[in-house]
Every structure is written in C-alpha cells, then in structure tokens.
Design brief:
Helix content is 34%, strand content 15%. With 437 residues, it is an alpha/beta fold. The chain folds into 2 domains: 135 residues, no CATH class; 218 residues, no CATH class.
Amino acid sequence: MTPTVLVRMADAGDLYLTWRWIDDSAPAGVGVVPEDQVEAAMGRFTAALPAPGTAGGLENALTTGALATAEAESALAQYLSSVFLPYNLAVSLHELYVRGIRPHVRIQPSPRTAQLPWELIAPDSDVRLLDIADVSVLAPPGIVHAPARIARSWTETRDLPVVAVLDPRVPGFRADSALGSVLGRMDSAAAPLATLVAGHAAAGRLTPPVAEPVEAFRRTDLDRAWLSRALHAGAARLLYVGHVTAAAPESGRSESATLHLSCTAASPGCAPAYRDHRPLSARDLLLGTHALTAGSRANDLGAAGDGVGGEAVPRTGPEIWPIPSRVALIACESGGDLRFAEPLGLVAAMLTGGAELVTAGRWPLPTDLAFRRFSGLPDTVHPFQEAVCAIDAAHETADPVVALNAWQRTHLAAWRATGAIEHSPLIWAAFATVDTH
C-alpha cells in the first residue's frame, strides 16, 4: 500500500498546518507559518501568474515573470518550500525517497494557499516535491459525506461515453473576444486535440458523435439542456475545455462561479445573462430549479427532455445533471472555489453531482496563441492542447493522480534541462486534481 499523508491547512491570521500518515508509519505533526510570511510568499507567487485582465499581465507572466525562466522559478520554488513545507514532514518524505518509495501527499489547502502548487516546491535546490511524491487535493469532507450525494463508480462506468464540450461557441461573443475561442482554428487533423477526438470517436465513445474530428469544436448546440440529455444517457467522463468565470474570493459567493456553454439568454438559470448568453453557474448545478420561478422550472424541465413533461416540479442540480465519475474542467481558475472558506463552486458542484475525481485549473491558463504571441513558439508546438490530452489520458487510467503526476515530471525534467517556455510550470503545475478516495 502506498504511504499516504494528509496535510490540512487552516487560516487563522497565521497559517496552521497539520499532517498525519494514514498508516501511522511516520510521526504526525503540527506547524505554524506567521501571517506576514504567508502574505509575502503568496504575494510573490501570485505576481508570477498570468493576469489576463491586467495590462501586460499575460505577457509578463510568459516573458519576465518568476515562472518564465528556470533560474527564477527554481529560486521561487525553494523560497515557497522554506515557508510552507514543515521540516519534520520534509524529513519523513526524504526518508521514503532514499528508500525508493514515492508516497501520496494529499493536500487540503486553506483559502489563502489554494493556488499554491505543492508539486512545484523545492525542499532542496535539486529536489521538488513532485520528484519524491505524488500530489493531489483532498475533497472537502462535508461534500464527500453528504447524505444526498450519489457517487458514480469508475469501475462500473468506465466503458460509457466521454461527454466532450470542446471550446463551445458562446452566443454574442466573437472568436477573438473575451469569451471567444480558447483553442483557435482547429482545421488540422494532425492537431493534438483533433487526434484525441478521432480516437474517442473511433472507439464509439464520443458524445456528441462526429463524422470528422473538427466537428467537435466550436459547436453551437452544447447548451445546458443538451448537457442534461447527454449525461442522462450515460457517461464515464466529462471533458470541458472552454471558459469559466471564477467568483472573486472577496465576494464570499463561490457558488457564483460559472461555466460558459452555448446557452442563450433565454436559458433559465440563476446567473445573470451577458448579451445573448446565460452561463451555467455552480448554483444551478447544486440547486437545479429550486431557485427558479415555476415558469422557469417548466421551461427547463421541458428542455431537458427527461420525460417529466414540463411540469413545474423543482429538481436538484444532480437530478438534472448527473455528473460522471471523472471530470476535467480545463479553464481559467476552474478550481477557484478552493479559495473560499465555503467551497461551493464548480468543483464542489461536480463532486456533489456524483464525481469521484475532478481536475481543474488553479489560475488563468495561457493558451497556445498566447505562447506564440508572447514567447515566439512556432505553431507546431501546443502546450495548452498537450495539457488537455495529458489530462484526458490520465482520466482513462486506473489512477489519474499517478498518471498526471508522471506527465508533470516529464515537463519538470525538460524544464530543468532546457528552460524552454513550453515546459514552464505555468501550464503543467496549473492543474489540481481533487480526489475523494
């Protein structure tokens, strides 16, 4: 059995950390990080992240930020380790490492530290936590053990279709606008994601079915009603690549995070409409039609096509959208609810709806176009698409956490060896996998 340590953090002015080995094979412990050190460290780290809404915020991250060069990133990783990794825990991890054992570190971050990629931190100049451990994020226990939650088993559903929502067209927004295309023109069958789609289609496991791979991208029919029908028909996994609008942590409303499908403003839901578009919110996915008027409920039930016949009977989100066992939300800050004291955002909604495992983004993700525009990468290199393919492949394995960490190690090795921007942690360290097991 893989040694597993649970690391839990809590904000109370200072940051408090506790850790416990599940098999009691090593000592448990408690650590405290003074508030000023937490603020300084997280401030230095977040300054290195992409900030698309700020002038130069994306360009700086890809050119001059601390995650843009291997030397600066290594210094940052060592600094973060000195602040956040307790010495006694580091000793236990190193003892396993020298014995050739790679443990599993399961992190429950505090809201202030939710964006911190523990995979990246460096206990030594030549050692990253990713080198010596597999890392995942603990799902909130209140969600995992909720009485109404019905988890879907991967072993029982793994042969069902992959529901793929790939860069859907958002009504009222051009391809080059704020809610435009995240993938760009997908007109080549040789593109990594086109190959991925072709593979699932050939196996008869792709929803929606397509005759040609390019038909899976920039569709206009992938709205909330379609998603309900697709999930009710049965699914092993949900793969979403597109836009998420994260709720601001200071708002205290994690349930306001939204997923942008092809829904028009006429679609009933809790989120306000933008132009001719109403996004699907975490509140919708949690509460369903309980928060809507009777008229809106009738419209929604009729659209879902589940045989209810348009009766204005309120239903929960999981009843409308039964979430499959594994979910990939590949979008900017799609895992943003972990930055809230009460995480009720999109990750929580997916877990509540039945998912066993969710992979989501910790911070804004640079697209392949951004890499080309600001870093001069040729159009034959696709860091963003490769990440989507790696997550998709990992979610098909028996242990996605191990598989995804292995992919991250290949990029860490290339980053150390070459310092090439396509191997920067800006992409490979951006994803957190929230696991309920």
